[in-house]
Write a structure and sequence with these properties.
This protein is α+β, with helices and mostly antiparallel strands and 109 residues long. It folds into two domains: 1-45, no CATH class; 48-107, Phosphorylase Kinase, domain 1 (2-Layer Sandwich). Helices cover 15% and strands 19% of the residues. The chain contains three helices and three strands. It has a three-stranded antiparallel β-sheet with strand order 1-2-3. It is globular and about 30 Å long. GO terms for molecular function: ATP binding.
Length: 109
């Protein structure tokens, strides 16, 4: 999982390296893991364990399903202090990757 690094860009001027700028809409290619987003200005990413996601989605209950796609089910969840101390209550959507599906491999972050 993670962002695949991009090929280095060739410089328009021979002998000089091209510089690449990034912003929140265009993260740098060096980001290889979701944890890297927390260090990148403009993102407030948190990594949650599978157990925390089970708690947030009420054990992935069927009545928590928002939808289904090629990657698997999307569940309604709630992140709060029952999931992790110090977190303000926030509704979230949780994708559960279908290990037998192929689309999720291309879309998963």
């Amino acid at each position: 999982a993670g962002i695949k690094p991009q090929k280095p860009q060739s410089s328009p001027v021979p002998g000089q390296n091209a510089s690449v700028t990034s912003n929140a809409e265009n993260p740098p290619a060096a980001l290889r893991d979701v944890e890297d987003f927390g260090q990148f200005s403009g993102y407030d990413a948190h990594v949650f364990t599978y157990t925390e996601m089970r708690i947030a989605t009420k054990n992935f209950r069927p009545d928590q399903i928002l939808g289904e796609g090629g990657f698997g089910f999307v569940y309604k969840g709630l992140i709060d202090e029952t999931v992790r101390l110090g977190f303000k209550s926030m509704q979230v959507a949780v994708k559960e990757l279908n290990p037998e599906g192929l689309q999720g491999d291309r879309e998963w972050l």
